[in-house]
From TrEMBL, chain B:
One of its GO terms (cellular component) is plasma membrane. Belongs to the binding-protein-dependent transport system permease family. Keywords: Cell membrane, Membrane, Transmembrane, Transmembrane helix, Transport. Its main location: membrane. Pfam families: BPD_transp_1 (PF00528). The keyword Oxidoreductase does not apply. This is ABC transmembrane type-1 domain-containing protein. It is found in: Cell membrane. GO terms for biological process: transmembrane transport. The lineage of its organism: Bacteria, Bacillati, Bacillota, Bacilli, Bacillales. Residues 72-274 form the ABC transmembrane type-1 domain. The chain crosses the membrane at residues 7-29, 76-97, 109-132, 138-159, 180-205, 257-274.
Length: 321, 289
């Protein structure tokens, strides 16, 4: 993402300033309109992205809505200790990690396989039809997807249970089975995003040199061999980048869908850090404690993405930065 | 021998792709069919993908509910206002970041990219929104999401692709940077504006977390919250709809499906026409990202 070839405006500006004070005026004259155009964006980032980071100071305070951030009492690491000593701590960590890892293990390869299958389709119209259909669920809201999942799995009259009873089995109350939650979540994620996530691979596939396929054919390579020796290496860059991003965001499971799918009966598998933070902070009003848990997780997540990037840079010379 | 293996591969891959199509479309067709069918057929589980005993009763109930109309109105307002604000802020920011001669560009870019990896989280952000007085207002729905870093970078990539000569010609005509943006860049980038506008609009239409966190008054709730209360919680807050359907589990099912169809229909209808814009946007993001 970094464009090293571009001259750094900042360094240049500082050097110019030091040498000739009159340059400051010129710096302003040359940049004022661009800065003016950037200003709303800058304010947005400062207010909605950076101010909350400074707001994390409340994790060291006993934040009180009426006394405000500055007037509230300092409590040091009280809330971090509270979380580490909380009997739910290990369960929440386990649930968050397991859900993220399962989502990665099944959700990461799925679009690659679909993209490879689409790439083998000879009829352009059929390929386009499958693509158009499979992208669709990506634009459906989490509320609707969660509603559909819950209704289809309902033990009374749900589509899936009707099928189960028609085959002569007892209906299953899927949404109240702790053992089912992760599967339901991961499969619904795949259903929702598999098509959309093929786009990056299909874009990479168009860049594979057709001459390589011809050369492989002349050498007598079968279809599978071509797939293995030409196609996959051709898109390995896209695969690695996506993998790093996915590993880095393993713990950043979308709040909305888990929140919408869970219910107290299955908290033992379905409760993750972000939904716990919501209950503690927003529902019970314990802002400091909730924010402390959130920050704890944010830092682990940051370490994750940094490590994934570091390993990838060493192993495959591909990295985000 | 070789021919046979090829065709086997072909058969299997076609079957898998068809399965993807069926698994994707079936739920929508089924919901549509059930919502349009007569109660008796729904109760006997006879409806698959074609309606039986075609009638529009459920839609009459859903669309006859003033709460539904209020939620639709709210959603439309949030989406329209939010998309407009987001597009203005994002496009101007993206253009200035695309100009390699802007001073501090690199530092500002780093400031933005950092937020992709770390943030204050749900609660400190809520406290900021609250301290601005945005809770329970339109602004709470449209301002906290005014810039998506992903869309900003995407748009910057679009603008970077515009030839420098056009900018130079604008300068020759005595335009300043703002003038160049408004008179030259914007008219040339209609497709990219459309793409980004669509990304924002879909996000706003589907948004659930902002109303969950920042809205208290039921009158301000958008469609997604109403839907969630109705379908997931089976809550009383959706008033007439549940009361009418409440007596009967099966009727409730078609009623819920009708509500889902009503709130999804706008996206289902426009989707085939705007799909190429989305894909174009995602492709550029994929190649450059």
């Amino acid at each position: 993402m970094a464009h090293t070839s571009v001259t750094s405006g900042m360094e240049e500006a500082i050097v110019l300033n030091r040498r000739r004070p009159g340059k400051l005026r010129r710096l302003w004259r040359n940049n004022k309109y661009l800065w003016l155009m950037f200003l709303p964006c800058l304010i947005y980032y400062l207010v909605f992205r950076y101010a909350p980071m400074f707001g994390l100071v409340i994790t060291f305070k006993n934040y009180n809505l009426f006394r405000g951030v500055w007037e509230s009492d300092w409590v040091g690491f009280k809330y971090y200790r509270m979380f580490l000593e909380n009997p739910d701590f290990l369960l929440l960590m386990k649930n968050t990690f397991l859900l993220g890892i399962m989502n990665l293990a099944l959700g990461f390869p799925a679009p690659i396989i679909l993209a490879l299958l689409l790439n083998e389709v000879r009829k352009a119209a059929f390929k386009r039809f499958v693509q158009t259909v499979s992208y669709l669920p990506h634009f459906i809201s989490n509320v609707i997807v969660a509603s559909m999942v819950i209704m289809f799995l309902s033990p009374t009259g749900g589509l899936i249970n009707e099928l189960i009873t028609a085959l002569g089995f007892e209906p299953i109350n899927f949404m109240n089975e702790p053992g089912m939650f992760r599967w339901i979540y991961v499969l619904s994620e795949i259903w929702q995003h598999i098509g959309w996530e093929t786009i990056i691979y299909l874009a990479a596939l168009t860049a594979v040199d057709p001459q390589l396929y011809e050369a492989a054919s002349i050498d007598g390579a079968s279809r599978m061999r071509k797939l293995w020796h030409v196609t996959l290496p051709g898109i390995s860059f896209a695969i690695v980048i996506t993998l790093i991003l996915n590993i880095g965001s393993v713990l950043e499971i979308g709040f909305e869908k888990v929140f919408l799918l869970q219910n107290p009966a299955i908290y033992e598998t379905a409760d993750i850090i972000s939904t716990y933070v919501y209950r503690i902070g927003m529902e019970q009003g314990n802002f400091s404690y909730g924010a402390a848990i959130d920050l704890f997780m944010g830092i682990i997540s940051l370490i994750f993405i940094y490590t994934a990037n570091f390993v990838s840079r060493r192993v495959s010379e591909t990295s985000l930065w | 021998m070789k021919l046979e293996r090829l065709s086997l591969f072909h058969v299997v891959s076609t079957a898998v792709l068809l399965l993807v199509v069926v698994v994707t479309l079936y739920p929508f067709l089924h919901m549509l069919a059930v919502s349009l069918s007569g109660d008796a057929y729904v109760m006997r589980n006879e409806v698959t993908i074609l309606p039986k005993g075609l009638n529009f009763n459920m839609y009459e109930i859903v669309l006859g509910d003033p709460k539904m109309w209020n939620a639709i109105k709210n959603t439309v307002v949030y989406t329209a206002v939010g998309t407009t604000i987001a597009l203005i802020v994002t496009s101007m920011g993206a253009y200035s970041l695309s100009r390699t001669n802007m001073a501090f560009r690199k530092g500002l870019m780093m400031m933005i990219v950092f937020t992709m990896f770390f943030g204050g989280g749900m609660i400190p952000t809520f406290l900021v929104v609250r301290s601005l007085g945005f809770v329970d207002t339109l602004w709470g729905m449209v301002i906290p999401g005014a810039v998506s870093t992903w869309n900003l970078i995407l748009m910057r990539t679009f603008f970077s692709g515009i030839p420098k000569e056009l900018e130079e010609s604008g300068r020759m005509d005595g335009l300043n940077d703002l003038g160049i943006f408004l008179r030259i860049i914007v008219p040339l980038s209609k497709a990219s504006f459309a793409t980004i506008a669509l990304f924002y609009a879909v996000g706003l239409w589907n948004n659930f977390i902002y109303p969950l966190l920042y809205l208290r008054t039921p009158d301000l709730f958008p469609l997604q919250v109403l839907l969630r209360n109705l379908v997931l919680a089976g809550s009383v807050s959706s008033g007439d709809v549940t009361r009418i359907g409440g007596d009967n589990q099966i009727v409730e099912e078609s009623l819920k499906y009708a509500t889902i169809m009503v709130s999804t229909l706008p996206i289902l209808i426009v989707y085939p026409f705007i799909q190429k814009y989305f894909v174009k946007g995602a492709m550029i993001g994929a190649v450059k990202g």
